[in-house]
Structure formats: C-alpha cells, structure tokens
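Q: Give me the 3D complex with uridine-diphosphate-N-acetylglucosamine.
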Amino acid sequence: MRLNVAILAAGKGRRMFSGRPKVLHLLAGRPLILHVIDTARKLNAERICVVYGHGGEEVPQAIGASDIALVKQEPQLGTGHALQQALPYLGSSGTTLVLYGDVPLIRAETLRALLDGQGDRVAVLTAELDVPDGYGRILRNKRGRIMGIVENDDATAAQRKIREVNTGVMALPTVRLPGWLSRLENRNAQSEYYLTDVVAMALADRVAVDAVRAPDARETQGVNSRAQLSQLERIFQWRCAHRLLEQGVGVVDPMRLDIRGNLDCGVDVCLDVNCVFEGDVKLADGVEIGANCMLRNVEIGPGTRIEPFSLIDSAVIGARCRVGPYARIRPGTRLEDEVHIGNFVEVKASHIGRASKANHLAYVGDATVGRDVNIGAGTITCNYDGANKHRTVIEDNVQIGSDVQLVAPVTVGRGATIGAGATITKDVPPGELALTEKKQVTVPGWKRPIKKAGGAA
Ligand code: UD1
Ligand code: CA
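A: Here is the predicted complex, encoded as structure tokens.
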C-alpha cells in the first residue's frame, strides 16, 4: 500500500512563551521535528511532507533534508487547513498518515500497528488519559464504535469527562481527502478548520473509522508547554537508560543520565550519575565514567577511567588512561594508551604519547608530546603570541619540572629535563638539563611587619 506522511508543524506554540517555533525546541539535544521525521522515515513512506508556517524559514533550515517536501501554511487556520496545504504532495491514492511535529515520542511500531490492514478506512490513534484537559475527546456510541471527535473548547461538560482523547495521529484514505478537507467549516470555538471533523464526514460517507488505543499513552503526549517538554525529555532519557541497562551497561541511576546523540558502549561500561553525552560517543569495554562528566563526540579505549567533573570534547582517548577529576580535554586532542591527565589540567589540540602524564594544574595546547613524558604541576604551553598560535614539541622521556612556561614555537629534545620555574624560549637539546634560574636571596635579619593596634583589618 502506498504511504505518504504529512507532519503538521505550522503552529506557533503560544504556551512555550518563546521566540523559537515550537517544533524547533530541543528534546535530547535535537529539534522535536527531527525526532518525528526520524520515526516517519522508518515507515518506508513514499513521501514525507512537513507543513510549516510559524517562524518562517527556520523550520526548513533546521530540517535541511532535500528528500522532505516542505509546504508553507500561511496563515495558520487549523489542522484541517494545514493538511489541505499538503495535498499537492500526497498523490491521489494510498494512505496518508498524519503526524504532529510536536509529538516526538511516537514509535514506529505503534504507527505500523495503526496502519495494519489500512484500506479505504480512517484510523485514529487514541489514548486514555487521567487528565484529558485540552485534548479532543473521542465520542463512541453504545456499541463502542467511534462517532466523532469533539474538541476541548467545543465539548459539553459531560463530554469533557471522557478520558479517551485524540492523539492527533490519523491514517486516512488519500483519495477522499480533497473532498473532505474542502467541506470543512470553521464554525467552532476556535474558528479553525479542524481535521478532526473528517471523522464524522467519513462516517456519513460510509467509510469505516477505527479508533485504535495506543498501548502506552506516554508516547502520544504532545509538547504544548515547557513543563511538558521537560516531562517528555525525562521519558526519552528513561527509555535510553533502560536500553543501555538491557545491553548490560552499568547505569548507576537511570533517572540521572542524559544522552543527546548516540552512545555506544562495550562490555562492563559503568556510568555514574549526572553525566551528559552529546553527539557520537563511543566507550570501549570496561570504561568507567565518574559522576558529573560531560562528553561530546568522544571515543574512549578499553579500561580507561574518567574521574568526576571532567569535560571532554571532540577527542580520542586510548586504553587504560586516567583523566580527571576536573580535567578539560578540548577538540583535536588525542591521548595514547595509559596517559594520565589529572585535576585542573586543560589539553587542547594536542597529541600525547603513551604513558605520559600531566597530573596537576597544567595547560597543554597545540602540543605534540612523546611517550613517557612527565609534565609538572603548573606547566603551561604559551601557544599564543597575541596574533598566532604556535606548536610545542616535547619528545619522548622528557621530564618537565613544576611551573614551567614553554614559549612556542619550541622543541624539547628526547630525554631532556627542565628545572622548576623555567621559562623556555629556545629549543632544548636532547638529554640536557635546561634551567632559567632565578637566584635565591636571603635577606639577613628581615622582620615580618606586625599588625598595628587599632589599624585596619
Ligand atoms: C489537536 C487536535 C486534538 C488533539 C490534540 C492532540 C484538532 C482540531 N485538534 O489539538 O483533537 O487532541 O491535537 O495534541 O486537530 N498545526 C498546523 N497548522 C495549524 C494548526 C496546527 O500545522 O493551523 C499543527 C501544530 O503545529 C501541531 C499540530 O498541528 O503540530 C496540532 O496543533 P495544536 O494547535 O497543538 O492542536 P490542539 O489544539 O492541541
Ligand atoms: Ca497540541
């Protein structure tokens, strides 16, 4: 059966109190509309059409995919009017599946079940809610057959007690749409052309209408407010955390994990609380991530441990390394196996060789560091001259004392040693000791000042 999907996304989202179109608000770091498009793609539809409107071209820009048909609805006169704008893209046969750009958790399985056996009939996905306020209510007759949908604002007090609601997801025979949509009227509480009115039209035309209850009401929830968005975020994250747990990942607390992208984990990976993973993160076997870490586009080798409060962005980290606590690894960094990066150490666009260490309070930027190097506490690569960045090269087996400044461009030769407090401006030959000694002076008989009585504190 030929299938087309129309995603309605033109609404303003007034209750978000935001300048941004509602469907561009982020769920798990991605615009709502992209979640819906991902799901629609899983259905092998012939065409996916997005109806946008509010927010101008921001929505098409965010979608950015050339295989999605984009139709502007201007002005926005209701869901029926929105679907009417998509008609030229939906062909003249088969099924049209209507999705909402602000219902991001709907699963492809649920949609497949709704579409199952779809012919010349209408199928409405419904949900049973404890608090149905705001939704369109499903009207059924004594035999349980659906008779129509009444919108919240048009419903009588008795109808408002109905807890079965319209989720907005509907499968419709495409051939019938031009006729039904052109006959919609806007004589209702919101002066809008309601798509929901096609249910009564279908029944009048003796077209079968099925109301199918969603197995899990949570996936049909829409985003109308920031509070609802935050609830859906937690549902989404809970799903991610449980998927990881089922795969054997040690998630210490599934309620305190945020994945905004793809997290790929090996065997015996352990994730402590309050970690955020963005973009593509790959953790090999036995990796442990301490509490309160943030990792973005990172690959980590087996057996490495990231200690708490570390921030790692666009880096590749080898096996059996130890990073943090309080480490900052910035883009373009590669740590080979067994590297140790300790507290308050920042590494940027640097390559650090096997088993090298920078354990305390250092800045290593634009550097190439060999293997078995020790970088002392407080050491800084001075990579920026105010206009340009320069590289520092530290060869294998170098020992750098504490509080050293390496003024780039500079090379420290293999096996060299640098004394504490040195400011290195010239290349250091291999195997030698470089010092820029400041002379220590002893001032005989010097007395510390004594606080005067009644003086300022
Ligand atoms: C709609 C349904 C209601 C259902 C609820 C589920 C109608 C008339 N009502 O109500 O039965 O319970 O969704 O969430 O269909 N949109 C457009 N153009 C418009 C108006 C809306 O594209 O002119 C889009 C919105 O961007 C949104 C969707 O359609 O993605 C639903 O619009 P919204 O205003 O949220 O509809 P509700 O009043 O909540
Ligand atoms: Ca809505």
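A quick observation: The CA atoms of residues 349 and 366 lie 5 Å apart.
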